[in-house]
Task: structure prediction
Amino acid sequence: MKQPIKHGIACLALACGLVTGLPTYGNAGDRRPAASARAEATGGMMNMQAYFSQGTKPSYQESQGEKGWKLDAAHPGTAALHCDLDDKVLHALPPEQTMRITVRYLDQGYGGFALCYDAQEGEKKGEFVQLHNTGAWIDHTFELYDARMANGLDGADFVVTTRDMDVMGKAPGPVGIASVRVELAEYLSPYLPQVTSGRTGNIFFENEPMRFRIQCTDVTGQHPCQKLTCTVRNERGETVHRQSAIPTEGEAQVVLPALPYGVYELTVEMKGRGCYQKEVADFARSRRADDVNRRFGTNLHFDWVVYDNTAIEQLARLVKDAGYSLVRTSLRWYQMETAKGQFALTRNVLYSNQCLKKLGLKMVGILSQENPLYDTEPYWLENEEKREAYARFCFFMADALKEYTNIFTYPNEFNLTRGGKHNENNYRQNMDIVKAAYPAIKRANPDAFILSSSVSRYDDYYLRGLFSLGLDRYCDAVSVHLYDFIGGPDTYYAGWPWLNVYPNTRLFHDLMRKLAPGKEAWITENGWPTYPGDLTAEEAHQAHFLCTPDEQARWYARSFILNSDTSRIDKFIHYAFVDNEVGYFDRESNFGIIRSHNHRTPFSAKPAFVTVAAFNDIVGNATFVGNTADQDLPEDKRDRFACRFVNDRGEEIACFWQQDDRLLSDPSIHTYTYTSDMPYLEIYDMYGNRKVVENTTGNYTATYTCQPVYIKGVKEVKPW
Result:
């Protein structure tokens, strides 16, 4: 047991006693009696210690006559409650032992907490608990099938945390913890479970069989798994399929039926004599884009050292499967020039370019400006010496990558100062960098396509300032970044004009046609971070300025439809393809349409991935013909949209939707009527699920919803 006096840590609460006696670790087949320990904020006995960081005085939170420790992520010392079991009571659990940890917490605000614990394989980042602001004290029980509890977390056995440990970023508010209870379950958990499909992220495309290999190796050799039960739930939590299997030598093959396109959760329950375990895996069924969409790209941090070659190959393949043609990636100066004058491509940048080239894709390289060798923080490059050093880096990158890509962009969001504040008057320094780097890139690769500025937000004054200094002579295209984190691609805010993605895209395009005819207008960052917990949409908007996965899915679909219009923008690149981490409260960690590398199912699909692949498979490079709904209304009054495309086979495709109910200026129900003389109509939802209607009346009428619908008139119906 950790000694508070020896370590200078005051014991905050000591409690407990064994309910039925101490656990005895004999034969693996023995039925173990339940043991329990308890720590309370109000004090207790000597079988567990709970304490904050060394030297931190505890603070408390009271509500409804109950008292709890106050975990506050705003102050690192009180962000986590460290819990250490008395080694004489529980220590070094055998791998077949099941442990329950019950935390009593105050459900106040929209923050949360997570459990990290000493597991058989080392420190493990556990389950996250979301708060819903009910004001009640609630018990939540963590079921740990692989606990070790041998003081592996700096002397503690487990930690209740509101920040750090790569679990959640930082909770936005304090969390009250009244007590922590520990007990050993009577059932055993002796299995090493694995649920695999052989597909990246368990993403199945179109007609691929949905087959899983389920392994439940018994670590004791005495408790074989006798039955597996598989339950499939859709994104709304509804059970859509259940089946059982009898494993042979700890393994079973499970084939699921062809479910509708979408994302799912597979829960596998493993049962043996006196044994129970559960394993959860994510999977998806999706269309695969036949061709890449030449107008759209995505941002992906291939420069991250966490990605090995296998991960790079998998991500590049998924980018193509989704139908993106461009991948915008940072090329970090400090990674390429680690000693002055010594340049070398990093493994991940070189290999990702090689993979993209094999797939017919191309990287858009962001020539970053950070290098401590030249003291470039915050990357102003305020003198000629630093700008010349940066130009040498740009020359190296353009020359080293000319076999793979010729598209480069810089400076990135230079208008943002420290803290993300917009500076509308630093365009002169911006142009100093452009003028230094542009000729260096062109010397290395005369065919280089140079995309300049990447201005964060549409700012007419800033862009005009750049052009007044001759920007059009130093680039082939100009880009801006437009974000509306909780409103989608077609919203309009009277009071927040910088968030108006829909009108600002066209304003930027029109300004480029006026000031730099012949140069292209690109959007190089636009997207929506999702909230990975179980908040409702309104809770996520109010508490965190993020959206739900379902909202992200329909906004991506609508973004593709709107920005396929060549009169609006020349190229459009979404941010981002894959989550950076799994931080629940970190917006930057959750922009992806693919889950992160350290998600419970690495690189599994969010609903938005399925909608992107569906659009690019159904519509793709079809020509945008025009809008057909509410075109007589000003943009700030428009609440429903209908657009038409024609593909290379001459087939017309109509897409229609309305804005979300909370944004509607007219909440009445509207219908859209599609007219066609084709004998059949194919109707697709935004995930690509198809139904066929025989066209006997010459038209088809459907209700506008916030999820886009695609309609195509065809002469014959193909089986796919």
